[in-house]
């Protein structure tokens, strides 16, 4: 099995109207505990696999773009199934359309993508217990200090910087 196939993951919405494949490993997986993610997900946190947009391939259906505000004031686009309204991924203004924040819960095997880092833990729900030894930061972080060299190289390539 090739490394690419080994890291491929499929996912989609509840009604199965939108299906996708995530080709390759994510750059990083965030467990975000900020209040915006809590509100948007309706849960205690959002779990997102960051990956280049061209590595997310539609297999069926077409998600609908929903423009929403964000804490940065720059907004984000949440891509949802037009039928069951499940959020599949987001694009944030900072990276534009070239990076997707894929909702790990929409993967067929979400257990295969645990968080690499917990972010904005200063606003996490008090009953959420972050596992001992897990990487966690009160707010955000500098990518150069957290991401792998390979992920940083992929990010530079896709962002052109």
Structural commentary:
The structure is a single chain. The protein has 161 residues and is α+β, with helices and mostly antiparallel strands. The protein has one domain (8-155): glutathione-dependent formaldehyde- activating enzyme (gfa) (Alpha-Beta Complex), CATH 3.90.1590.10. The chain has 4 helices and 10 strands. A hairpin with a 6-residue loop joins strand 7 (76-80) and strand 8. The longest helix has 11 residues, at 149-159.
Topology:
Elements: H1 3-7, E1 9-12, E2 19-22, E3 28-32, H2 35-41, E4 46-52, E5 56-60, E6 64-68, E7 76-80, E8 87-92, E9 99-103, E10 117-119, H3 143-146, H4 149-159
Parallel strand pairs: 3-10
Antiparallel strand pairs: 1-2, 2-5, 3-4, 4-9, 6-7, 7-8, 8-9
Q: Give average pLDDT, whole number.
A: 92
How many strands appear in the DSSP assignment? 10
Helix content: 10-25%
CATH architecture group name:
Alpha-Beta Complex
| CATH homologous superfamily caption | glutathione-dependent formaldehyde- activating enzyme (gfa)
**SSE succession:** HEEEHEEEEEEEHH
- How many helices? The count is 4
Keywords:
single chain, 161 residues, alpha+beta, glutathione-dependent formaldehyde- activating enzyme (gfa), disordered N terminus
Please provide a brief summary of the model:
The chain is an alpha+beta fold and 161 residues long. Helices cover 17% and strands 30% of the residues.
């Amino acid at each position: 099995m090739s490394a690419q196939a080994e890291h491929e993951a499929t996912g989609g919405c509840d009604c199965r109207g939108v299906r996708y494949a995530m080709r390759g490993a994510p750059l990083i997986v965030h467990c975000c505990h900020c209040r915006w993610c809590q509100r948007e997900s309706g849960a205690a946190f959002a779990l997102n696999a960051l990956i280049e947009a061209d590595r997310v391939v539609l297999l069926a259906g077409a998600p609908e773009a929903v423009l929403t505000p964000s804490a940065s004031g720059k907004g984000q686009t949440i891509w949802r199934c037009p039928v069951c309204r499940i959020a599949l991924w987001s694009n944030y203004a900072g990276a534009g359309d070239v990076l997707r924040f894929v909702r790990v819960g929409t993967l067929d095997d979400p257990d295969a993508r645990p968080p690499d880092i917990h972010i904005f833990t200063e606003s996490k729900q008090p009953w959420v217990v972050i596992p001992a030894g897990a990487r966690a930061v009160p707010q955000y972080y500098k990518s150069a200090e957290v991401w792998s060299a390979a992920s940083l190289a992929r990010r530079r390539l896709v962002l052109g910087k």
